[in-house]
Amino acid sequence: MTFYQKLLQATEKERNALMSTPLIIEGVKGNISLEVYRAFLTQAYHHVKHTTPLLMSCGGRLPGHYEWLRTAIGEYIEEEMGHQEWVLNDIAECGGDKEAVRASQSPENSASLATEVMVAYAYDMISRINPVGFFGMVLVLEGTSTSVATQAGETLIKSLNLPKKAFSYLLSHGSLDISHVSFYESLVNQITDENDQACLIHSAKIFYQLYGDIFRTIEAEYMHK
């Protein structure tokens, strides 16, 4: 069994818990409101905007024997730069105020506590614990995208009667991240240090919980009124 396979096996329970959240289930079916979709995009913006800074920070913290991983991070950065603008453009296409979201001008346009905590944990993992652990977040976000993003986008286009350009973030990440997952698998299989492997498994478990909390917060505020 490769380390990637061990990672998936060790985090299966946490992944299933995330994928069973009502917002993801109903989103894939197209059974969410425009208000909920905009709330999802708002929180997506507030964590996606940190992707490139987090990757840069991770690359800078890696020790010398991970130079090969630092090089790979450079490729990730090229792919991820500017994706937060895709999210903002989707918000505008949905009738939202993207500049209000960018500026976090009101509670509904700001990062939720759950989003703040996930982002903070990512920075803390890199700076205080182990930069390799950041790849737990990569597993969670990209793995979730490939599973549901494209399907959710396609169904929501119909159910919300919105143009395709209102779903650039979802539609691009579903298909885009399939190749990313293969790239990710090849990378983590090169991580042989047992302590780093254990840290990556631990962090992935935590990120599944934290990412799920973002969805659960949206559910509590918008879907259970």
In whole angstroms, the N-to-C terminal distance is: 46 Å
Rg over alpha carbons:
17 Å
CATH structural architecture = Up-down Bundle
CATH superfamily annotation? Heme oxygenase-like
Order of helices and strands: HHHHHHHHHHHH
Overall residue-averaged pLDDT value: 94
Considering DSSP H and I runs of 4 or more, what fraction of the residues is helical? over 70%
Q: How many domains in all?
A: 1
H/I helix tally: 12
Q: Point out poorly predicted stretches.
A: none
Q: CATH first level: which class?
A: Mainly Alpha
Secondary structure class reads mainly alpha
CATH topology: Heme Oxygenase, Chain A
Written account of the structure:
The chain is mainly alpha-helical and about 220 residues long. It contains twelve helices and no strands. It has a single domain, classed as Heme oxygenase-like (Heme Oxygenase, Chain A).
Features:
Heme Oxygenase, Chain A, 225 residues, globular, single chain, mainly alpha
SSE arrangement:
Elements: H1 3-10, H2 12-19, H3 22-29, H4 34-48, H5 51-61, H6 67-80, H7 83-93, H8 98-103, H9 113-129, H10 135-160, H11 168-188, H12 194-223
Helix pairs in contact: 2-12, 3-10, 4-7, 4-12, 5-6, 5-9, 9-12, 10-11, 10-12
Give a brief outline of the structure.
The protein is an all-alpha fold and 225 residues long. 78% of the residues lie in helices and 0% in strands. The chain has a single domain (3-223), classed as Heme oxygenase-like (Heme Oxygenase, Chain A, Up-down Bundle), CATH 1.20.910.
